[in-house]
Design brief:
Elements lengths: L3 E4 L2 E3 L5 E7 L8 E7 L6 E7 L4 E3 L7 E6 L4 E6 L8 E10 L5 E5 L3 E5 L2
Parallel strand pairs: 2-11
Antiparallel strand pairs: 1-3, 3-8, 4-5, 4-9, 5-6, 7-8, 9-10, 9-11
Length: about 120
Amino acid sequence: QVRLVESGGGLVQPGGSLRLSCVVSGSLASFAVAGWYRRAPGKQRELVASITSGGTYNYADSVSGRFTISRDDAKNTVDLRMNSLKPEDTAVYFCNLRRFSKLYSPDDSWGQGTQVTVSS
């Protein structure tokens, strides 16, 4: 029943900035981890950034210092601020929410993705 909708993607020049937003239909506070993944053409999906409900951050080495993830549990939104964008950042970006069952198995929810293209 949980639905995630991403927005904010588009075409931007190298060095530019974009802000991606993920709107959660359910209660974001019930998910232990919120994250952004991306998949570039010919590449495997990779974790870009994540944030736990306790405020712990994790970033891919390729984006550290340039991207910032945040979550607002009151507004049920997860944002990804991207600065100093590079052509290598071109990919479809997906919002992900993860919670854990009583059996400790992960339960993932995914958005449909939003395209980010960095090109001159």
